[in-house]
Amino acid sequence: MILAEQLPVRRIAFRGRPQRDAPAALAQEQPIAFEYNGLGYAVMLGTPENLTDFAVGFTLSEGLADNAGEIGDIQVAPTDNGTILRITLPEDRAEPLRERLRLRLVEGSCGLCGLESIEEVLRPLPRLETRPRLEARAIAAALASFRDHQPMGRATGAMHAAAFCDPAGRILAAREDVGRHNALDKLVGHLKRQGTRPDTGFVLLSARCSYELVEKTVRAAIPALVTISAASDLAVRRAREGGLTLVSLARDDGALIMNDPHGVLDG
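RESULT FIELD:
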């Protein structure tokens, strides 16, 4: 578990507000650069923990590979100011990557780039046909133990977590990061590396449900997503398009069913 050193803090109290313990440490956040076959692709801000999982999950969610078996060597290279993830793809995957990067370089001079970028963001989703094994009591069980799987979150108060839960709500794996998208990418990468069948459970996220989280879940072939905060309208529309069972505002006293194409939560 990677945490930055604790800095001296001074607490002020507001009338009628209960006191809270200060964080034990600060969440670590640094630039994490992705290089594929020697080409710089993206720089994300994230927590330098479980970076091999992050490399696999990010590569799959970006559509740079169809499965973990297509991903070759992964090198984690710390630098003075961040970390570089050097990832090797087979040549048939590298050529489309080079073309994508070439198009990025000329985007600024093209009047249609905004429209093209929007089309890329909203490209069609694959349709999930798997009926998730999900019940209300499983969601409640996962929520009850969720905090136990967030050591960095408990220590810092500044981390997101993504957990994969079985049909009974038992948390089988969890990953943390300062970025909610990164936490989910790390979790997906872990599942792929372990060979875990994505249709055997559901994802629980400590985050607002944005459309990117829906898309990452659908593209990972996980049939159900539960988030503790609300979903955006675009997230719900994309969940309906992708056939994803989506539950948001999941709290101790209940949750909102945003999309339930198979009727698994009826009654």
